[in-house]
Structure formats: C-alpha cells, structure tokens
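Please predict the structure of the following assembly.
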Amino acid sequence: MEIGLRLAVSLAQIAAVMGVVMLTVMVLTLAERKVLGWMQDRMGPMEVGPYGVLQPIADGLKLFFKEDIIPAGANKFLFTLAPILALVPAMIGFAVIPFGPSMTIELFGMQIKPFVISDINIGILYILAFASIGAYGIILGGWSSNSKYSLLGGLRSAAQVISYELCVGLAIVGVILLSGSLSLVKITEAQAGGFWNWFIIAMPFPQIFAFVVYVISAVAETNRVPFDLPEAESELVAGFFTEYSGMRFAFFFIAEYANMILVSCVAAALFLGGWNAPYPGTILGHIGLDSIAWMENVVWFAAKVYFFLFLFFWLRATLPRLRYDQLMRFGWKVMLPIALGNIVLTAIAAYFFPR
Amino acid sequence: MDHIFFFYFAAVIATTSVLVVALRNPVYSALALLIMFFHVAGLYVTLHAEFLAAVQIVVYAGAILVLYLFVVMLLSIKSEERYHNQLPVAGLLGVMLCTEVILLLIQSRTASSAPAIPADPAVGPGNTEMIGEALYSTYLFPFEVASLILLVAMIGAIILAKKDINERVQQ
C-alpha cells in the first residue's frame, strides 16, 4: 500500500514534468520561428490560427500522419531503436532538476517534495551520464540509415559530443567545488539570498569563465547553430536524420529541443541561482503571503530557463556555422584549457576562503 | 527485494556479456556491452555506491563505448570476418578461467560467503565524500601511480599521432 501510493505520487510528478517539458517543446518550435522571423525582419508563421499561434499543433498533426519510411538496406531494428535512444535520455534528465523551492508537503502521511521528482545526491553526475547516452541515438541513427550523409552526420556528432562533454563536465567542477555537493537541490540552496550569491559572480572565485565555457559547450552538445555540423544542410542534406520521416523524425526533433531545455535548466540551477530570486527572500514572502511564495520562485526559474532558450535562438540568427576542424580545435585548444585553469584557480580560492 | 534486483542485474550482465562475444554484428555487440554497463551501474546502486554508478555510465557508456562504436561503424561488416575464427583459442582460455573461478568458489565456501552489508546511506557522509576521503588518504600512492600511467599513455598517444608530421617536415 505504502509503496503503491509512493509509486502513484512519483508517476504523477513524472507525468506533470513530462507534460510541462512537451508543452515547452511545442512553444519553442513556434517561438524559434517567430524570434528568427523578427530578427530577420519578417513575420514568421502567420497562417494557422490567430497570429500563427496554432502552428505547433499543425506541425504535430502533419508529422503524426506522415508515412513512416524505412529505407531499403537500412538496419530495421537499429533504425527503429535510434530515435527512442535519442529521446529517452533527453527526458530522463529532468528527474533531478529542482523547479522550485525545496519544501515538503504532507500527503496521505508521506513527505513529498513537489518541485523535484528525485533529489538524489549525485544529481549533476546523473544528468551528465544521461546526456552522454544521448549520443547513441544520433550515432546509431546515422549508421543504421545506410546512407553516406547520415553516416557522416553520425560520425561528426560522436566526435563532437565526446569533445564538448568533457568541457561541460570540467566547467561544472568549479561550481561543485564551491557548493560542496553534487545534488542540484543543495547547489541551488547554496546560492540563496540575492544575486551576489549566484555562482556566476559569487565570492571567493566567480565562475564567469566556467559559465561561458558551459554555455558554449552546451550549445555544441545539443548540436545547435553554430555547432550544428552533424546536420549541416549545405553539406549533409540533414545529417544523421536525413532518412527519417514522420514520427521517428519527430522523436529526434523533440529530443533536440528537450536537450535544449535540459541544459538551460542546468545552467540556471548551477550558475544563476536556480529558483532563487535576485534579491533576498521573495516579495510574496515579505508581504506575508508565505504559502504562495513558491510561485515567485518557479517564475524566476522559468524566466532564467527562457533566457537561455532565447540565447539559443539569438545565436542561431547571428552566427554562421563553424568548419569542422575549427570546431574541434576550438573545443580542445581553447575551451578545455580555460575549464582546467578555472578548476585550479577555484580550488585554490576555495581552499583559502572556504564559504 | 534486494535479492530480486541482484538476480535481475546479475542475469542480464551474464547474458549480455556472452552476447558481446557471441553476436556476429559488431554494432550489436557494442549495444549488448552498453546494456551490460547499465546493469553494472544498477548493481552499484543496489550497493548504495551511487557515485560509482554514475561514473561507470559517464566513463564507460558515455565515452569509451562511443569511441568503440565510432571505429566499428567505419568497418565494413560484411567483409570483416578476420575475428570469427578464434573459437579454439577462446575456448581454451574460457575453460581455464572457468576452472579458476570454480576452484576459488570452492575454496572460499566459508561462513563469510554472504555479501557485505552496505552502510546505511542515511547516516554519516555521503558516498562521494567517502570515496574522496579514501582515495586521497589511504590509497593516495596507488592513485598517483595510476595517474602517472595514464599520463604516460597520453604522452605516448600524442607522440604516435605526431610522428608523421615531423617526418614530413624533415623531408
């Protein structure tokens, strides 16, 4: 009974988070086209619904009813498995993201944390682990399609993800050194009490370099412009998902956007204070409405995440694509030394000025 | 409950390990290895070694196996039959290893054959802190030696990769 109830609550939480993520993906597909449109001095999608707001639904319906083609000579099993392998790791990472204050509520005699599905003590490592698994979907998708373009896209992605994963991991180490924990809940709590406590500018050693390295590497790891070599249209048609159509294509597409949301959530939680407001406490808390103060925290978290998502669109509208050797040289010869140097300096600072 | 999980993980680990060497398609072998790594990580979780579990997936599944796949994808599977005639040697080595394991199991059938009970994670410092403490105090020397070996391997790889360029310059 106890286990069943706990399972039901967990499943409800998972369903809620999945729902929010999928909804955000829908919003993002429209927002990306709208923002790109405005930046390029045009309107973006305007046909479906008022002001084009129903475009994501039209896109979803179109993909759902498209014919599902498996190319001749493709490896059917891996061709089917690859989109799933891409999507599952992207969704599973949200299990440890704290979306709001770490309070507990009593429900049926159980302690429930409403804003985080599972507060495990290795939260950030868990996300890194599953982020690295996401590469399998791309590699296998590229290989199983039996197409030159797909294979080249898959190979590029494998090399790129491994290189930049390293920078993401090393950039995070500085924050872990300062907070003394791998749990995202504890890391966020360590940044409470105003924007000067956020790790991006917090004493004893501001993680501004780590932040820059993390954001650039995150863009590279999600295969977004200017690092979208695995799907470079001008060279590889559409890269690793050239041969995919219908819902399988949609899976890759959703995985890319879910990954964007995930890295944005991690960036917000690690460097920008997560759900903490940039001033001590919350305004709702100060005027005596403690019971709904969590709303303010959740809004702050969402605002920070959307800032990063906007950054993704902004980069796409601004920067041209890198060449492949430039991408590799940049990752190994610029980003990696900066991340390593940041670890050394942060460790020294954290030793002499413990928080 | 713990036993159910242990037998599930153990059975999958054993099955997929056999599949890694038994499957003809090297990509399928790599996938079987991926499933095995995940279940080894699961075994670590049942022992409350969450840090090890995460590192297992990050290092083995996330980095090393991706590089394996990278190489395997570039092979032409249909023409790659070089490694399919190893049955005599592999069989001999397998029988020898099996005998050793069975001998060891027979010798160690004492009272302490039950698995060690993991420490209660609710008390004391976390798993990550404990590994850090042990690694940098008790096992400092082996740790440093391992780092040195890795450094030598890295320098070796760089020298091997750079050789061609130097020769071309000399000519």
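Residues 2-39 of chain A form the longest helix (38 residues). The two ends of chain A are 44 Å apart (CA to CA).
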